[in-house]
Structures
1.
Amino acid sequence: MNRSTRLDRRGFMKSAAAAGAAIALPTFIPAAALGRDGRPAPSNRIVMGFIGVGSQGRGNMNWFLDKEEVQVVAVCDADAAHLEQARRNVEERGGGTGCAAYADFRDLIGRGDLDAVALALPDQWHAVPAIAAARAGLDIYGEKPLARSIRESRAICEAVLRYGRVWQTGSWQRSERHFRHACELVRNGLIGQVNLVEVGLPMGKTCGQKPPQPVPEGLDWERWLGPAPWRPYCEFGSDRCHWDWRWIMDFSGGQLTDWAGHHIDIAHWGLGKEHTGPAEVEGKADYPADGLWDAPVTYQFTCRYAGGLEMRVASDDVMGFMGTKWHGENGWVYVDRERIDASDQRLLSYDVIGPNDVRLYRGPRNRDHVDNFLDCVRSRQLTITPVETACRSISVGHLGEIAMLTGRKIRWDPEKERIIGDPGASALLGRSYREPWVL
Amino acid sequence: MIADLRAVLFAALLLACQSAPPPKDLGRYTDEESLAMAEAMPAAPAAAPRAPRRLLVFSLCEGYRHESIPAVEKALRIMGEITGAFTPVFSTDMACFEPESLSFFDAVLFNNTTQLKFASPAQRQALLDFVQGGKGVIGIHAATDCFYEWPEAAEMLGGLFDGHPWHAGGTWAFKIDEPDHPLNAAFCGRGFLISDEIYQIKEPYSRAALRVLLSLDMSNPRNREVEGVHREDRDFAVSWIRPFGAGRVFYCSLGHNPVVLRYPGVLGHYLAGIQYALGDLPADDAPSATLETTPAPALTTGPEDVDGPYAVLARIEFGDSRAVLSAFEESIRAATPDERAEIEARLLEVLTAPATTRAGRQFACRLLQRVATPRSVPALAALLDDPEMAHMARLVLHGTSFRHADAAMRDALPHLSGDLRLGVIDTLAARGDREAAHYLAELAAGEDAITARAAILALGRIGGADAASMLSNLKVPEELRAAWLDARLVCADRLRSEGLDPEAETIYEELSAASQPPACRAAAWRGLLQLHPDKAGTQLAALFRDPEPRLRQAAAKYLSEMGARANAAPVIAAWPELPADAQGMALLALAERGDRAAAPAALSALDSAHAEVRLAGLQALGRIGAAEHVERLARAAVLEGDEGQAAAQSLAELPAAGADEAMLRCLEQTEDGAVRAALLSCLVERRPAGLVPVLLARAADEEAAVRLAALRGLAACAAAADLPGLLGLLARVASDEERGELEGALAAACGRTDGGAEAVPLLAAALAGKDAPARASLLRVLGRMPSASSLEPLLTAAADADAEPRAAAIAALADWPDAAPADALLAAARAGTSTEERARALGGYLRLAGLGGERSPQEMRAIFDQAWELARTPEEKEVVIARAGEAQGFWTLSFLEPLGADAAVGAAAQQAYEKAASALARRVDHGAEGCAVTLALPPSEKYQAGGQNALTDGEWGSESFSDGRWQGFKGESLEAVIDLGREVEVEDLRAGFLSDMNSWIFPPVRVEFSLSLDGAVYETVGLFEPGAPAAEEDRQLRDFHVRVERKRARFVRVAARNIGALPDWHRGAGEAAWLFADEIQVNPRFEQ
């Protein structure tokens, strides 16, 4: 995802609030529970720990720290520099209350005083801490994609549902009004029956080969790798290993899986396919011929859903755009972060969707993606991107990945979540964990 | 089969690219070397020989003798035999160069000859004549190690040996300078790596004389990390051709290691080069330097290696080129089942070979994952006790469909311990291997707690009745209890999904007991609810009353999760008795399900003593409420805070039949103005048909709040057809605020038509007979729709007898998009009765005067002089000054400068002068423009602003850091020395920086300007120490400016200190800050 866009957007919201714009904060908090300083009394705050507080995690944590109802008491990271910086950040912003720092997420989860955790880890590390947190009865804010493989995604779903936890995925586009509007136009049939949806995602990148380097001080490399295959340390990009892991297939599926949780997720939302998946997937990718990064550069695959709906996913060099575009019998609707567009411009007005139309998830107004999680931690309602939704969004990305890796058409049973008649492709549905990590 | 498979891989990897080579007769090559050469040899000539060709292969060494000489001879013999391109004649006898001998040949090939002197002038001349007369010469490897004393021959061959920094033991990267050249066809357009000794070539080597075909790929670090390199241009040609007289020359420095004679690419290149020299293969041989467009070279993409991809794999190291793996991946995708079996076999050989590197074995496993059959299992199983490889073995075994994998892992398990055992346990669990259950149960009861925990969790994942009872019978110590409970829950869920409901229920019953931890109880209850949806409602109602809050929370979660499968009636019935938190959560869950039967509960929630319950009730009504709840919601919508907001949102979104009508009815009936206002706002969001007339009526409501809400609503939905109604309101507005809203509504209604064309005449016509405030309103609305038709009434009104409409018209004209109203504004400036009016008209006039930038500086100056004369009061004068400051022309400086003496507005004039001067300075050229800059540290790769001399390129940056004009320094300070090229008198120094804290770009905390005559001794002439900013500031340009008392200098140094780490108050605290500089200016010229 694009970091700067998000930060800018948030920066804007913050400054708008500071400037006295009419942004009230309707919350579920009873006024009587408010402390004298306007913050909720400590007993009514949501006590949180953060696992992974580097690049994406740092931004996420700052977002939560802006929320008065949140009390951060613990942070965890495999890089001591990030860990210490996060701990100081919390202590300074938390008005002097202490913040514990952990190298091992199990110690954080095992504290016993947390209500929720937020996870921002490389993809190979998504399942183990999430499931541990669910077992411990914690609510979870997790990043997209839900996991590195379909099998892990399902395991997270099962654990979260089993223990009745609240799960929010970092697919924040859902909390943007224009995305919801686009989906509501499609859901309400305003472009007629949809037979095709196109999803454009960023093209991948290549880099040179990099020789092994000494592990930098403070970085616990073995722990950073965790369940992923061992390799010697080298800088993946600009910030040690902390951002550009996402172009290496041991840790991520590249731009495809990085963005599936955004634009494919939105495509599903508009189509109401959030609890199912395609029946067939086929496609092809160009992989970097050499270099450290090995995730696809140019890629395209087509998914066919029961009933004939087709979803085409491709890198933007092939698709010609980023974002989601639904084609119906009577026109089209397109949406991405910057804009919404439609074949019929009249559809763009929000009042096209009335109170008696199909309405998608609406929480209290003026509540952002993190607020939605916090509201649901209290109310126990489903968040705007619950775990099953996240699972189905990334499954499309993972199936596309498998189809492109094998070069074969994949037949998929979305009910049983099995690949039909292709053991070689089925072998790629899960990943073995490097010892000592177990699911 | 093996040969076929190799062909598949070689096609992807190696240096042969014919799709279907003609068959070769390899039968006669019996020794290993000959056979390998013959296999790699092109099957056909690069071009059909036009006559039988005789090639003199001359191998005399007067210096060092290369071991590869016989190999080259052998390869040339085989080449001649297979391709028929020539017949080689081998010799070491100088007599061959006697004229009559030479004439027998079509070309001479110097095979690793060294230190040849050619002492005989006759032989020298014979060779030169031979080539210049139309024959060919070829040099292989050491051929350039000759002719040091014979410049003509060195010239002919194209260069001389100058050491071999790339020694024979190394593997070097080669680029194909011209991938499309016919002599390079055998390389298939791809650079390659080969182990050979490579020469550095010195003069007379020159691309101005030679057509270079192949050279060292210096982008490859391996090639750079050598010693003894002399050439500074890093042009290390490996092969080339040239015409020489009427003849042709081909040289290739490959050929030190005999093994290169087994490379298809090298042999194909030799053949083509020889045939070119023989005159049979036409090829462009114009010197490289004369080509109009330099061809794009093909760089090394991977370790193509004669030994074949499997050998590359076997010795690959982490950090090496991964090209071989990519090629494998591609070939696996394309492989037939037979080929896959072959690949599997070869990969297993690599995997088990003792010399294979760790990386090689790891990559072999990754590839095996794609082709593995049961055949791979033994080799993989053997790795399960190898700490370096166990995970990679499991990577393959993990997803295989065959049960051999489980058996092998089960067999290995008793022999493993520690982490390696954990890994196998996890993989068996993931595979659901039920046969492993018994042994896992033993481990689960074992001493080692970590192993026991993994085994317990594995039993849960494997599931089934056996695993369930093993887990039930297990006695676990306290530290394993959490894992044990989780495993049993997982197991029970699995049993349930397999239809073994009674077994599952037993476990759920046990684990839902009050003695169990809350998280476990909650999960067990979920299982029970799912098993008996018919009882779920009653059980949920009970759970909502549980003393344990986590169970109450779980009840809410499961109530919504189960949807229609769970009957909500018992929960609704029990609702009044629930604890407050449960009441709130239950209502929201019921609303999420759309249970309209819960509406009465939601309604009664509004009277709860608990705010959270009231809020939940309001939110729930928005989902499950009905028309009858409108009135109650409307009353709540006027509350302050969360509840009012929730009520308003629920009203706006209420999806109920008759809701709109109920709201309209309520609007009529309620006596509370605040309620009417709230209802109006909600109705505007709902947009029911026929809303505008209601709004028009309510715009005349007795309550101001209602009128305002109605007017805002009209702005949101009135259209041109509603204009008469809106105009009718003009006479009725009761406050400036309402007037403003009404004007907004009028403008919006006009705007909803074709840009107002239809609406403007209506508005203009309405002016007649209206009172002054109404006329002013209409004029303001007209001003928002500038067009020819709206200009007319505004011009007329600019002379209106009443001040208010006159001021409105002048204000509208002052903002006009073109200069049409300029004269009217000037007239108004003259005629105005108040200073505000005159100032506004004057300002507008001057703004319009500058539009389009078409007036000359003289004309502009005259207009401003005239305006200055006209300005009477300080307010008016300040307007003139302000406009001059914005006017962007050098004339503004001479206009503003004398005004600095004005008693009333001198300070403003000075300020405007500074601002104008600084803005102009950003566009003028300056004394250092184009001068050389030396930077102590280079800028970041991303922000170079075009490179070395960007700071003196005359290009100022904008406020956008990514406009390509900013040099960025991450965490580092800037120290730039500018060499002005000669001594000059320095008077004025400026340096420009950017402050964009949101993008982590901070202004310098210290800036020092110094001057020097000699570049060694500097004198500081300006020092700024603004220090670290204490808070975020808006994005801005930060320039530092020094006036110097005429000082002679040739060198200017600017040292700007980066703040270093982002300050504590910044969201990136502790990270490296950026310093961005765009230009350093010396003596900018302010000329008109």
2.
Amino acid sequence: MSGLRQDLEVVLAVCGRTWIKTLRRPVVLTFSLGQPLIWMLFFGFLFARYRLLDLDPRLGYLDFLAPGVCAMTVLFGASQAGIGWIRDLQTGFLPRLLNTPARPAAILAGKLLADVSRLLLQVAVVLALALALGARLRPAASAVAVAVLALVLFAVAFASLSSIIALAARAQEAMAAFVHLVNMPLIFTSTALVPQRQMPDALAAIARLNPLTLTVDAWRDALLFGHQPDASGLLLTALLAAVLFAFAARGLGRAAELY
Amino acid sequence: MPTEAEPVAARASRVSRRFGEHLALRDVDLELEDGQITVLLGANGAGKTTLLRLLAAVLPPSAGTVEVLGVAAPAAASGRRARGLRRRLAYLAQRPSLDPEMTGGEILHLVATLYGLRRRERRRRVAGLAAAFGVDGHLERRVAGFSGGLRRRLHLAAGLVHDPQLLLLDEPAAGLDDQGRAFLWAELVRRAGDGRAVAVVTHDLTAAERHAHKVAILDGGSLLACDSPGALIAELGRTAVAVTAAETLERRALERAVAGIEGVAEVAASGGRGRVVLARSDAVRRVLAALAASPLQVLDLEVERPSLASVYRRLTGREPAELLPRRRGTP
């Protein structure tokens, strides 16, 4: 079997396995859908009268918030991707898989493909929920396609980062700390909940470099205005995703020693 | 020495392996030949698993060299060389490494896919191995509901799905019933007969004596002996008389009972049991007579012919019972 075809088979097999496990744990799926619902309801109604200075006056806070919650859903889901590796390390199943001829990068890609596709489905549910709550979106198909790519790259980056942490720490407790220590500062220094112009200067400077901001802005431009996302932001997110994926694949390869 | 008909599948030369301050393996030489079963014997901490992991390219040695299936320094191999090696060897760790949330069939198919088997071949191998290892009736069930023995069978079936040239098995029979053990050894003998090289860590001395072409005895990280069971027994095995008494046996009392008999090499006693080891087997009758006539309250006398157990006892100074893996909660 050729290398590329073998890699593709591995990616699909591991993706299938991850989906099977996800569907057999519906509780996890339910919780990960419940969280964005809470964000949407609490923040949506709490800041319903919040004036958005630099945006179209016809936009309400819920309209502004919906793309942000989509990106936050991806952030939270992706940053928990590493937990699956820890379970697989505990059973010894992961080291076993890594001692086959399959490339660690293909195994990682299979897992991330499943995780990212699940997250995109969750984003679709979040959008449906936002529309049901009264959000007004004006998307353009081509812009949304590019914004989905931005979301995918962001998910790959953070799922890879989560995998790096999980493979190094090998403890679920560490993942809980990671999720809170990384996600919360990322959210509150991004444009997910507040426009950049309404932030204090120092925070706005940080927000400009925040990968969550790049993704939220791409998603918001596409969904609210039908604008093509900024190419440089996309490029930066792609670079981040590529670097973190490479490190995660390397960490995965090292876990073969644990067999 | 291996001949041309028995090429070396794996070779460890003067290998040592250190984990921090602990020297787990010291200057060990071992060759695994195609068509042969090599059994590794030793108590906990003897270095068997470490040796197997070095040969499986999971760990690099701290010193010495390892060559496996023509690949030198296999643990450092990368890319195609590493993948080619993994395609031809199977290392099965002692603990069944399975995902409890998956079904037996899903695990076998996933592992077969990762070994690069095409769909039709995958189905054929999975069906064949599942039937052979008696898991064919459980392919639709999740592993979480499997018994220990069933998990072990699935673990073995998954490990052999790619028909490896070199099999490295760490206590593969642990948790199997008599029927499972018999099947396992028959399968290993069959694969060795097909020219595969097999290395097995086991505590089953009877099976080792019956099926192994070569037995390597390790203790404290060192290789004490390595030869065919017959050669080891001929050279190092000793006849012994096992004594069961109605009361606690003291070594001195046992020594007094057999004092003056030529050919007695060693006397040992613990609890109600003792053993008189003989340097010459023609001393058996005199020892039996002396014990029967002694004031010891003897319940039973049994002559133990030279065996791997006696070889192990002589080389390590340990009882073969110490080969058994410790259970959790026991000292």
